């Protein structure tokens, strides 16, 4: 299926969108004694609070780092092609350099074992105008910055004149303390048992078996500490930062931990720091449903009688749910030897909603292909594979494994089956299409052995420099109210809210007004007025 979306945009969205596709098993708040006696996997956190601790903002201790770490000199060299764990792609080529930064495995034991943090950079193209480094996190959690930044760099050409563009693989991701769970063959061929809790137990056992040593050290606060070490090693007095999707939560935690070290910082597609996992999940369900209904209205107008979802939202919901029910009974054939399952179809539908109208123009013919006389699922399978990080050789990146490990390490509460059943009516009301899957996702952390200290990130950053916080009114994954709340939580004089009246996940490179405002801030230091609205 032709994919009209420009490569850079696709790479960024495939990374950022890991946060919320409903078919993923997320972690939720709820009963703290979820399924007592049923846990089948264990990992032993080290002393010093080695659970992720990100949401509580305390992290893994604050011992001073030895000079061998804080004063290390990076050895930059040409970049190889990304590894399978990072996501298969071509080597980035001329101008790109890669290095490995040493960091403590456990910040409570700074003189103990170290790990390697994978970095990538492209030096500023105008040495006379160079400001410093601009560090990117593209979201997830689970996105490899080393693999994503080169694919997205065309969008950041103007910024590259003034900044070294820098990104990295966060803890647990890609080539940095890689979290490994199920193998490629299982991911590719096993449809699951049909029992979400049973499948989650199996997944958790695999993660602990393959990655027990690193699981206590992949939380967001630990990665924030890596970013401050990165700032020092790169030679920057302040951290200039561009966070997208989950990258905004990471940036907020960094600002809370290191407010005096905040440089020019932008959050785009912003995670709401005020909602616990259940309330966040409900907000996402509503936002996904809103985006789907916008896509169906567009389909009815643009494709008329050829629109596979009909003329109304109610009709479209019925048709899509009927298709999903049929796929649950009998997966659709594709041009490959694999079949399109219900979960893969739902993943693909959700993925297209991140793209706004570009995605809607992909969704309509893809649904028509499955719903038509041939009933083939080739196009939706291709979209799901892109989202899932599967290459044409059947290899998967580790982004979903990392997503679960980081999310669960950050979150205190665990959900039981009874909790999920109690929330089900609200989720199904919020989204007839996505709600049933999203509520099951709340079981995702129920068996996880590493527990965070709270259910919401601490992002207050008194004394920090202004942070521009951008939200899109039609964002399905990070609803626009999250940006407004993030701006308030950062504190007076810190959070500067910019709202974009548009569709899709993220704004930079898509909305001229927002892109200009962000460029002006990052290059000249002039923030937009708080409350600015871009059409």
Architecture (CATH level 2) name = 3-Layer(aba) Sandwich
Biggest sheet descriptor:
10 strands, mixed
Please identify the oligomeric state.
single chain
**How much β-strand is present in the residues?**
5-15%
Number of domains: 1
Q: What's the helix-strand series? A: HHEEEEHHEHHHEHEHHEEHHHHHHEHEHE
Task: State the shape.
Answer: globular
What is the spatial order of strands in the main beta sheet?
Answer: 1-2-3-5-4-6-7-10-11-12
The total beta strand count reads 12
N-to-C span: 32 Å
Low-confidence parts, pLDDT < 50 over ≥5 residues? 1-11, 17-42, 44-62
* Radius of gyration over C-alpha positions, nearest whole angstrom: 22 Å
What percent of residues adopt helix (DSSP H or I)? Answer: 40-55%
Task: Describe the secondary-structure layout.
Blueprint: H1 7-16, H2 67-70, E1 77-78, E2 96-104, E3 114-122, E4 132-137, H3 145-152, H4 157-162, E5 163-168, H5 184-189, H6 196-211, H7 220-234, E6 239-245, H8 246-257, E7 262-270, H9 277-303, H10 313-329, E8 332-333, E9 339-340, H11 342-352, H12 357-371, H13 378-388, H14 399-410, H15 417-430, H16 435-441, E10 467-474, H17 481-490, E11 495-503, H18 512-524, E12 532-534
Parallel strand pairs: 4-5, 4-6, 6-7, 7-10, 10-11, 11-12
Antiparallel strand pairs: 1-2, 2-3, 3-5, 8-9
Helix pairs in contact: 1-3, 7-8, 9-12, 9-15, 10-11, 11-12, 11-13, 15-16
